[in-house]
Amino acid sequence: MTAEEIIASGKLELYITGSLPSEEISEIEDAIATYPEVREEVETIEAALINLAESVAPPLPAMVWTYVLNSIKKIRNIDGTASNKTNWAAMSGWAAAILCFAGIFWMLKQNNDLNKSIQITNIQNTQLKEKVNLTEGELTKQNNLLSVIRSKDFNTITLPGNQAVAPDAYAKVYYNKAENIAYIDANGLPTPPSGKVYQVWSLTLDPLTPTSMGLLEAVTDADKGVHKFENIPTPEAFGITLEPAGGSTTPTLSQLYTLGMVTAAP
């Protein structure tokens, strides 16, 4: 076969990757030694395969390349003398090995990327589940509160703002006299200053006797929720004052924000 026929036959690619039948290897090696254009074609194919391997996998360490090149260059003849010719069989074998290593590295990288993707997905699923559980918990809480507001067992009492202190303030009390339970909706109260807290009082009026029900600890612009109080004494009125952090034993009447009378219970 001529050099052009050998190049066009596709045997050079099979030779380089180690796939050429053994009976045809000597023919290709003779052609490489005889025709410079065949040798150049082999070098071109090898370079292309190596570039392809490098593009799909992490680069081989420098010491691996050095070992490969030294192994190829140090091929000796039977008489012990170093050969001046390139050993194309060794070169093609190492090229095939490099491609194999590149494929393994590529698959390992793909597997590692897949594992990372799975971990991220699991984390996202866990976070989503937590959000769903939180949302369901908030929904249950809101439904329970709605049932309280609608219940005939609770008397709704509006506490208007003290005109001298906070005329725009207000609060609502949902009071169950039979169970001594009260829910305080603090949405109408302004955010307390730093170091201050709202305190709720159960009042009897004659004589004026205040009894602390507790503190509205979490009244902020972002969260003005409904607060539950239990075991409260029977009141004639409810009042809310602004007190130092931790609360007071008696109400600061100059800081009385809201006050409302208890109407007849249903």
Automatic annotation (TrEMBL):
Q: Which residues cross the membrane?
A: 88-108
User: Looking at the Swiss-Prot or TrEMBL record, what is one Pfam family this protein matches?
Assistant: RskA_C
Q: Give a GO molecular function annotation for the protein.
A: sigma factor antagonist activity
GO biological process terms on file: regulation of translation
Anti-sigma K factor RskA C-terminal domain spans which residues? 94-252
Q: Record's GO cellular component, any one?
A: plasma membrane
Q: Which keywords belong to this entry?
A: Membrane, Transmembrane, Transmembrane helix
Q: Which InterPro entries match?
A: Anti-sigma-K/W_factor, RskA_C
Name the PANTHER family on file.
ANTI-SIGMA-K FACTOR RSKA
Q: What is this protein called?
A: Anti-sigma-K factor RskA
Its source organism is Ulvibacter litoralis
